[in-house]
Amino acid sequence: MTAVITEMIYAVAGTVAFSILFSVPRRYYLSCGLIGGAGWLVYSLSGRILPPEGAALSATVIVILLSRIAAVIGRCPATIFMIPGIFPLIPGAGIYWTSYYIVTEQLDLALHTGYEAVKTAVAIVLGILFVFEVPGRFFKVFEREGRK
Amino acid sequence: MSEAENIKENEVMETALLAGHILLENGAEISRVEETFDRICSHYGVNSGNAFVLSNGIFTTVGDDREKYYAKVQHIPVSAARFNRVAAVNQLSREMETGKYTVSELREALERIKKMPGKKRRTQIAASAVGSAAFCLLFGGSLWDAAAAFVSGLVLYVYILYVSGPHLSKIVGNIGGGALVTFLCGLFYMSGLGSRIDYMIIGSVMPMIPGVAFTNGIMDIASCDYISGAVRLLDAMLVFFGIAIGMGMAFTLLSAFGGGILL
């Protein structure tokens, strides 16, 4: 469990660093970081029972849901939270190993890792699409809490 | 129709177009650009405003049998996302709905947003270094691996800001970036800093990953803006391929000169 928490701290740090790269307004750094951390938490916990693409799907769903909630509370576009928050889920290892296996002429392994990376990417796409189908009125609940 | 009204319609359209320009240039989705344009036009009583938005241009017209015709096309090259400007335009259009601004005041406010500073280059380079190190640790690297990723993430962003951004085309720039990172991490690995070259490289290419193009592409396709969505996804794919090709080239070089240590 401590390993999961340490990893979450890394995910938060990475997400905040990337929200700085995208010039996210300073008041949203913390929310961006927490959303990225929450996404990673769901990814690593659900990864124990689900295959990697299933874990990526459930983590993306959580990231986008939280981003939409944060957008209603903060009264700003949801993309500000989504884009940095999704970074920890990107299959970077897939790209690395695919190009490594291609260079070393292990084409069957390259095909396998490339296919795994594409599956994860499709899972992230589906996660974004599913949560964007949820009508805006379901998020109105949070608006009242955020009103000053 | 009096002359004053004509000028007003023109001004409203120009203002709405400016808002759309800022949004599109700084990483907003197509639907948000169109929505903001329509909202500004109808708030100031121009009912015939129409905008057709692509990922790198806006085509607008105003005019029908009651309002005079105007048209304007604006080309907007793809550039780095600056979400502080997107958030500011979004905030401004909410405030506009409460009737706080005249057209010219809105336009002045938009001009100010357009000049809003991004992060300093120093800050961006530091953020890239810290982000690379954090993602290296996240994917399983040790502290030494993270130190190597920190340095190569830092060098990578110096390269992006001073070499590839101003001087190179996007494809060549990304191949160069992927190669640079792989080469640096290979050198660190061979000199004994860090034990897992894969975690170092994966962490330090993260600042190049096209998260904005990828996510916005999906969102555009979700809202049926297929042309812009396809263009943005193609953009993201080219970046991914560029990075992978750069990595492959550096691997080959390293194994040729490094005596096959890596491969």
Cα shape of chain B: elongated
CA(first)-CA(last) distance of chain A: 37 Å
- Widest beta sheet: strand line-up of chain B: 1-2-3
Strand content of chain A: under 5%
Mean pLDDT of chain B: 87
Rg over C-alpha atoms of chain B, rounded to the nearest angstrom: 23 Å
User: Which structural class do the helices and strands of chain A define?
Assistant: mainly alpha
Shape of chain A: globular
Count of the separate structural domains of chain B: 2
Question: How would you describe the oligomerization state of the chains in this entry?
Answer: heterodimer
Amount of helix of chain B: 55-70%
Number of helices of chain B: 10
Quick rundown:
The complex is a heterodimer of chains A (148) and B (263). Chain A contains seven helices and no strands.
List the helices and strands and how they pair.
The complex is a heterodimer of chains A (148) and B (263).
Chain A: H1 2-21, H2 29-46, H3 52-74, H4 79-86, H5 92-103, H6 107-132, H7 140-146
Helix pairs in contact in A: 1-2, 1-4, 2-3, 2-4, 3-4, 3-6, 3-7, 5-6
Chain B: H1 3-25, H2 30-43, E1 50-54, E2 57-62, E3 70-75, H3 83-97, H4 103-114, H5 121-138, H6 143-167, H7 170-190, H8 197-205, H9 211-222, H10 226-257
Antiparallel strand pairs in B: 1-2, 2-3
Helix pairs in contact in B: 1-2, 1-4, 2-3, 3-4, 5-6, 5-8, 6-7, 6-8, 7-8, 7-10, 9-10
